[in-house]
Amino acid sequence: MSAVPGRELRIIGFLCNWCSYGGADTAGVSRFEQPTDLRVVRVPCSGRIDPLFIVRAFLNGADGVLVSGCHPGDCHYSEGNYHARRRLELLKHLLPAAGIDPARFHYTWVSASEGAKWQQTVTDFTNRIHELGPAPAFCGASTPEDWAAVALGAANGPGCSDHGGDGK
Amino acid sequence: MRIGVFVCHCGSNIGATVDCVAVAESARMLPDVAFAADTMYACSEPGQLAIAEAIHEHGLDGVVVASCSPRMHEPTFRRAVERAGLNRYMLEMANIREHVSWVGKNKALNTNKAGELIAMAVAKLRNDRPLHSSRFDVNKRVLVIGGGVAGIQAALDCADGGMQVVLVEREQSIGGKMAKLDKTFPTIDCSSCILGPRMVDVALHPNITLYTASEVEDVSGYVGNFSVRIKRRATYVDWDKCTGCGLCMEKCPSRKSPDPFNEGVSTTTAINIPFPQAIPKKAAIDPEACLKFQKGKCGICARVCPTNAVNYKQMDTWVTEEVGAVIAATGYDLFDHTAYGEYGAGRYPDVITSMQYERLMNASGPTGGHIVRPSDGREPKRVVFVQCVGSRDPSIGRPYCSGFCCMYTAKQAILTRDHIPDSEAYVFYMDIRSPGKGYDEFTRRAQEQYGVRYVRGRVAHIYELGDRIVVRGADTLAGEQVEVEADLVVLAVGAEPSKGAPELAEKLRISYDTYGFFMEKHPKLGPVETNTAGILLAGSCQGPKDIPASVAQGSAAAAKVMALFSRDQLESDPQVASVNAARCVGCMKCVQVCPYKAISETEDRFGNPKAQVIETVCQGCGLCTATCPQGAVQLSHFTDNQILAEVTALCPPFPAESFE
Ligand code: SF4
Ligand code: SF4
């Protein structure tokens, strides 16, 4: 596990109650060791996740956001994750426009029985965020040109070039 | 607001890798927290009493319990705070066991993480509002899917309890796998003698409506009020007229198709009644084999039928049944051994499956109970049984133990020696698993009393040599290679979920595991329930089970249905959506996304279109909330503000910025 011990990054996970939260529980019950950075917000369904929650987390300084729901076709509410999938895919493409490196965002599907997959997901994602380092802080970009530069920086590589946080 | 925080040690489960005292101390610093303490076992009686005491003593109006997963004990703590006079929804849990102490090794980091999870829970709780349930009527009818022994038991128990039961079976007759068996372990009871009367009871019970040759196509609704669409396959015989006399079978000229009831060891006619004790005892045409369907001529069965029941033009029909609960009892399928190239992959006629052997031993089977070799009809003198075919083998994706193969192999070996006294029986096994009542004694009897030779080791290779079959494997106890020449080899095939199980699970909105077995609510304390209220499990659809376990679970599922139906009304979950009419612009996007049709269109008094949530129908998924462009729909207990409060607790906004 390469996530640096002692120095955590802020990673938020939005997990649907039925599959992925259960999968995370299964990983716990099976004692599958994971990096500790991730904090989980439980929501009823991945379809409940408003993409704005994710944007808001990033604007507040989250270093990474992970979303996980039931496998498509296997939603407790029949089709909530199909709606989620469309929104999240779209969001991924729009994040650079807000100056957010899309590599800091990941969505996946983990069922309640897939404890090992959850362990892998958390480990991989945490490692990825540690490689990217802490997210660059937003510092009052005000003009459209500022924002464009931020967006370009995010689209071209990890993070926004202008505001380069530490760890880069 | 006055919030109390209780940090559970869960003995050493949490306490060993989280500093619970420090966590409780840090919780005291959080806004609105009036009281924080650590406790050994929050869920125990003294633990719950301590919470109640603190609520009274400190005038708390909200409680955070930091302990195990809310999926485990949220109902427990909701009841606890309710007993102490709070609204049950003024409770939040922080999962510091499954998500912290059990997965993190570093105590300092774990302690920090536990503290932050509590901060998130407190932030959410500060936005909680008391919620109140409404009531709705229960439709006291139950649907049982699957007419094997588990489904039959569940249906009969429910029906005897006064419930109206709808039993749907995919095959032409009920009875499932058990109806094909000869004898049952460990008592050597005759299978059809104990199952047959039950099958008749199903047919005659005034409270049971039986649909065979039928499948569940669609399930909608929610606990207490499901609506189920059932497809009744065309059988090309009018079952109201068919008396089951069997004349059509006698005269049918198409007699070459493999008989599925006999597992293909014999052939059958295109129009047939699957077995003499079938319930219902009605004929059906297999259009694949029927000359009338394939070639357009014949029509003999229609001519000979004394009641004019044959109807080649019959069509599929659909019925809709309204029920309040569903028991899934769809059973299992046998593993297809053609996956094993080293065992001949189905090429050798004298290497057969355990179920084929069962049919050969069965007095009402194709050979009248004479054990013969499929290749030349000779009586075999040496029979080798190979266990764990399609069980406990990760290389073919079946790492689980199928549970009953050890026992049925012992039974078949004993019966072989009974049927053919001068025969020999060998069993190749990996381990003997015989934990049931009387089971170990039974496998011992096979070895000691019947002289069945047990060889411990996996079979590596099976091949034909002249007219015999050679089974080669290792005897791991003796530490040597062994080769046994046999007349007949019986593969003890394992169990896998029945075909279409995942599709059915998706229709029922229940979870299934990697293999397709349905997932129970809790492996220990909720073995017959699912995570979807009103949907219960019985028998092998949940995992391989023998007859006693299937029957027990069938009865258990029936008991759960009766407990559910003992109330005339159920309380709805108040965690539902609601529309703020002032914000709603009437776009009806929410109506489009709601999977339950729980949102309807109304008008305000000026005639403007507005959305309205039907509370008893809403299941609380929150799809509408995330969809509404106006932020007009909010899901109680998971409002935008509550979720954002959690986010903000973890990542406070930069001081220079404000998003409000
Ligand atoms: S989506 Fe929102 S605005 Fe549109 S009808 Fe529904 S509640 Fe009203
Ligand atoms: S939360 Fe909304 S979308 Fe989900 S069931 Fe209720 S009304 Fe329908």
Radius of gyration of chain B: 31 Å
What fraction of residues of chain B sit in β-strands? 15-25%
Average pLDDT figure of chain A: 84
Ions, cofactors and other ligands present here are:
iron/sulfur cluster
Would you identify the regions of chain B where 5 or more consecutive residues have pLDDT less than 50?
A: 656-660
How many E-type strands of chain B? 34
What spatial order of strands do you see in the largest sheet of chain A?
Answer: 2-1-3-4
Q: pLDDT under 50 segments of chain A (min length 5)?
A: 158-168
List the helices and strands of chain A in order.
EHEHEHEHH
In short:
The complex is a heterodimer of chains A (168) and B (660). Chain A has helices at 20-29, 51-59, 80-94, 115-132, 144-156; strands at residues 11-16, 38-43, 64-69, 105-109.
What does this structure look like?
The complex is a heterodimer of chains A (168) and B (660). Chain A has 168 residues and is an alpha/beta fold. Chain A contains five helices and four strands. Chain A has a four-stranded parallel β-sheet with strand order 2-1-3-4, with helices on both faces. In chain A, helix 3 (80-94) links the parallel strand 3 (64-69) and strand 4. The model of chain A is unreliable at 158-168 (pLDDT under 50). Chain B has 660 residues and is α/β, with parallel strands linked by helices. Chain B is 28% helix and 24% strand. Chain B has 19 helices and 34 strands. Chain B has a five-stranded parallel β-sheet. Chain B has a five-stranded parallel β-sheet with strand order 20-27-21-22-23. In chain B, helix 6 (107-125) runs antiparallel to helix 19 (640-650) and helix 7 packs across helix 8 (191-204). Chain B starts with a strand and ends in a 10-residue tail after the last helix. Classes of the chains: A alpha/beta (168), B alpha/beta (660). At the A-B interface, helix 1, strand 2, helix 2 and helix 3 of A face helix 4, helix 5, helix 6, helix 15 and helix 18 of B. Bound molecules: iron/sulfur cluster (SF4) (2 copies). One iron/sulfur cluster (SF4) binds at residues 579, 584-590, 611, 627-628, 630, 632-633 of chain B.
